[in-house]
Amino acid sequence: MPIRFDASLAHFEGDCTVEEALPLNEWLLAETSPAVDLRRCTGLHTALLQLLLAARPALASGPEDPFLARWVAPLLEGPRG
Amino acid sequence: MSSLFEQFLVESRELVEAAGGGLLRLEKDVGDRDAVNEVFRAFHTLKGATGLFDWPPFTRLVHVAEDLLDAVRVGRTPATPELVDRLLAILDQCSRWIDAIETHEALPADADEQGRRLGAALSGTTGGTGEASAGRPAGFDWLDGTGVQDARPLTAVAYDPDPECFFNGDDPLALVRRIPELVWLRIEPAAPWPADLAGFDPYRCVLRFRALSAAGRADIAPLFRAAPDQVRFAAVPPAGQEPAPTPAASIAAAPPPESALAMAEAILREQRRALGMDADPAELDGRLASVARTAAGVLAALGRADEVQALATAAEAARAVGRPGPLANHLATLLATFGTSGAMPATAPAAEGRAVRRALRVEPERIDRLMALVGELVVAKNRLPFVVRETEDLSGGGTPARHLRDAYDAIDSLTDALQDAVLGLRMLPLAQVFQPLPRLVRDLAQRLGKRADLRVSGEGTEADKDVLAVLGEPLIHLVRNALDHGIETPEARRAAGKPETGTIRVEARQERDSVIVEVADDGAGIDTERVRRKAVANGAVDPARAAALSEEEALALVLLPGVSTAATVTDVSGRGVGMDAVRSAVESAGGRIGIASTPGAGTRVRLTLPLTMVITPIMVVAAGGALFGIPTGAVAEVARVPASEVRRVKHAESFVLRGAVVPLFRLHRLLELSAPAGRSGDGETVLVLRIDREPVGLAVDGVRERAEVVLKPLSGVLAGLRGYSGTAELGDGRLLPVINLRELL
Fold this sequence. Notes:
The structure holds two protein chains of two kinds. Chain A is of the alpha/beta class. Chain A has helices spanning 21-30, 46-55, 66-76, and strands at residues 3-6, 9-12, 14-16, 35-37, 41-44, 58-61. Chain A is globular and about 30 Å long. By secondary structure, chain B is α+β, with helices and mostly antiparallel strands. Helix content of chain B is 46%, strand content 20%. Classes of the chains: A alpha/beta, B alpha+beta.
């Protein structure tokens, strides 16, 4: 299971594909203060990324994957611009 | 009108072709100023030509392209590969419109919409002159905000994924991640985020990507193979080396080329003639208005709109006096300005050359008819030697006989010369069939993520127009094959120690009575083991024979139906139909095909075709109520065989000819036609054929005449028919199927 929903914290693990988009969307809608853990995420489908960008959950832990850390994580940190 | 219209069709196609050629050169070298000028001139002339007719969307679209090219010409806008792409798309549209105009004399209903779409796409590449003049390629203004200072030249990538792309299995972020040597990346929403997540559709892609890479465009573009329309590239010069805009050579609008002037002149002349015709005074006003309107259109198209007022004044004067004189005089004055075209700048020599070549255009049908008549003339001439001999016998070699023989000799050599001349009329340069290849290679290489140079030589070699017609399709097949499964990907080529860009050579030359066209690539070559396996797998040969075949024979297997050289079926080729189709097309025209291939070094396919369609003497025979041609060369004699001498053993028939038993076939039966109705009692007309030494009898209902014909291969649905080698047109226009005896017996 690439995304493990643990109450208000979602753990993204491994290659997270487009199949996760609907569960993630529902989870984001249901949680009042969602947070995500991207530490062990190695692949993030565009559909998931845009959900995160639209909903802006807190970033509990940034990705270790160099590409995601360099180019994606900064978008999820800090206030939504 | 009609000749002007036809001139437009010919000329506009040439202009589209010229512009296309220039664009391909420009794409190879965006700094090629000659190419820019050539493309600009072509669009400019095309605009002038369309302006003479009433096709506003056509003129408008060409005008947009011309304006942009003018900006490129004077260095206000950089030439980019995207620009070339969009201009090529516009040329494609122009070709379709010209086709539509030829068929319907009007643009298709969606012309306006199509024109606006393409025009907008083109303007989108520049984003208006303000932006372009800032030194930024169109649509790349975001480059100013990257803060990237790199000493290397960079490639800017603007990727706007299709909102529906997730449904195609695309993952834009994963794609962007694979951009080599990524220097900078911005991910941003294409539109503001919705206020409420509840209304957000997670399956619609709303992101877009802006990236800078130190890799070259050619290394990045293949990643976006599936989405070429969603991505744009621009070259970014190294930091501190912003290109100074190229100084303008000349900003003045180019004068209209001579061809447009010639058309304009023809129109004005026609209008003046119309004024000179007797008109019902009641109709004069209408005619004056119509002529003035047309002439004003011509002036506007020539960029002489400032003279329209004077024209209107002349028309007004004519109306006032109730005679066409004042307007006619004004037109005459205008026409005189065309006469001074010596003062006009000379057009490019190439254009003049074309104009000379165009001097006489003849419908191919007329030449075919001429050819058929020459064929009959040869047959008629061939009866003369008998008359000469009879006369000699009668007159004992006297003066009349000698005169007759002299006359015959003269007619004989003249007929030969005439036949050569007519065959020469049908000769066209191979450039015609080579013309679509550069574009094919370019588009296909882009789609396949490969790099290939097309080198064409010998395009001036001439061959009969029917030979060219046969050659076109196979040539496209072969070049497509070479690129699709000959040339490897740049990575594979690098790994094999070859230059990343493959080379496809298309060479034509004449060798004695043949024209030879070779298509060679420096790709991977054909894996004969795989060909053997494939041929065995689909039953083309049995395993034992396949194993025993020499390399050369194994290569020839790819010419069999269902055997393909490709490892995988692609959408381009590799379904095992191509080479078989090439072979049958070439063979039906009396040609041969040969393949040579060296693993790792490439493949060479050679087509050998007759230079002219061969003139075949035939005998016209009747069978089963229809007429057929039989090549005279195979007929040893025509015999009358009494019905009583035909022996039957079961269904096999035979007869005795000078002591030898000769098998007898009946043509109507071989062709599965009904038997002739009334059988005459005095015997059979039998053609004694010699095909493989042994004589064979072929019973026909009758022999009609002899003719010399040009054999045309069967085409379309008939091409698969065995038993016929083609059709021939007789002098009276009848089409005659010609029997292929070897196949039939």
